[in-house]
Amino acid sequence: MNTCVRCGAALGVGRFCLNCGHRIGDPAPVEATPVEATPLAPAPEPAAAEPPAAAPAPRDAVPVPVPDSAPEPVALPVQAADPTAVAPATAPLGAPVEPAPVPVPAPPAPRAPVRESTWDPREELLPYEEVDELVDDPVRGRAWIFWVLGAVLLVGLVFVLLDAFAADEDDTPATDPSASASSAPAGGGAEESTQPEAGEDGAEGPTGVGKRVDLARAATVEVPGTAPPTTDFDGNLVAYEAVQMHDGDPRTTWRVEGDATGQVVTFTLAEPAVVDRVGLVNGYAKQVAGVDWYPNNRRILAVTWGFEDGTTVEQTFSEQPTMQLLKVTPVQTSTVTITITSVTPPGSGSLGRDYTAISEVAVTGRRAG
Q1: What does the UniProt keyword field contain (predicted)?
Q2: Which end of the chain has the least Cβ crowding within 10 Å, N or C?
Q3: Residue of 58, 78, 69 whose CA lies nearest to 12
Q4: Within a 13 Å sphere around the CA of 44, how many CA atoms are in the beta-carbon half?
């Protein structure tokens, strides 16, 4: 339903007609329709009589008061949703009413000019390939690993230092006067056993002058015999002369056939000297072509050192191919003798040899004053 059933005006938004105020949805009011008069035959003029009485008003008819003057037009209520007010209806009831003109919206006001932005996304934003390459730093959540590794390395360093200090303490020569045996660490250097020096535990003796040196280097040597030279695996001739006991190379050796127990080797010093240490490498300390000749020859287990004044010192050895030194009471002498008192059996196996060998001899001291 688009028009009012009462006045025919176009309906707007709301529950009442904007033109006549009729409630939308109510039936149209019924109005009395005038009845056309039927022409009758002319009646005879009545005689003068009393004026006829006024016809009674129908029961349904409602007297309509006639105002003295025309009422003021009443403006109809304006719907809240309609921004344009509707003019009050002044036409009589039942007269057709023209629909109100549709309001034409005003043209929009001109907008202010938009200001261009100077922001360039190509300069402000990272390119896609750079964004893809951004990754989280894996070290940030795993820094504790480096602290743990550092602590482990520090603990390892402490253990290494403790072992080094312990080794230094183990290498300190003993001061027991009765100690004459010495043992060399496997694969290591020289080791000393001691006897009291001058001024120690009441012992007296010469001191010598100058710097302590190896007196055996400049000495001459006398030996009870020398084994003949042999040919090594490479076809080279190898000699076993006495001078090879004091050439500073433990891979060369002096050796004699068989068991040399009771035999004497004599060192004559270049000049009188005060001797305070003696020692030797008690076998053939040569390793070549994967062969270790030290266990394949006899090894010396004990000797007696003799000096010019008649004093003697005994020394025993471990079976290690290293220089084993003995600290003795300083004694002035021109000669030093080595009396072999004990040796091992010959080497066993196909490479075993029946020779007694000394690879190197050391006599340390200062020249006499």
Answers
A1: Membrane, Transmembrane, Transmembrane helix
A2: N
A3: 78
A4: 3
Domain-located, residue 52: no
Amino acid at 198: A
The CA-atom distances, in angstroms, between 306 and each of 238, 246, 309, 365 are 31, 18, 8, 15
- For the chain, helix (H) and strand (E) counts, in that order, are 3, 14
Q: Which tokens in the block code for residue 24?
A: 């939308």
Q: Which long-range contacts (CB under 8 A, 24 or more apart) does 287-290 make?
A: 287/251, 288/232, 288/233, 289/232, 289/233, 289/234
82-130 pLDDT tens trace: 444 445 545 555 556 566 566 666 777 677 666 666 766 666 655 544 4
CA neighbours closer than 13 Å in the CB half-sphere of residue 103: 9
Distances, alpha carbon 132 to alpha carbons 135, 136, 270, in Å: 8, 11, 85
Average pLDDT over residues 304-314: 96
The verdict on residue 86 lying in a domain is yes
Tell me how far apart the alpha carbons of residues 147 and 225 are, in angstroms, rounded to a whole number: 67
Q: Higher-confidence residue: 202 or 327?
A: 327
pLDDT at 221 over 70: yes
What is the mean predicted confidence (pLDDT) over 51-77?
51
pLDDT band at 225 (very low <50, low <70, confident <90, very high): very high
For residues 206 and 320, membership in a common domain is answered with yes
Looking at residue 301, its amino acid is L
User: 236 and 333 share a domain?
Assistant: yes
Does the pTM exceed 0.85? no
Please spell the DSSP secondary structure of 192-227, one letter per residue.
EEE---TTSTT------EEEEEEGGGG-EEE-S--P
Residue 303 carries which DSSP code? E
C-beta neighbour count of 238 within 10 angstroms: 13
Return d(Cα 174, Cα 187) in angstroms, integer: 20
**According to the model, what pLDDT value does residue 31 have?**
63
Residue 17 lies in a domain: yes
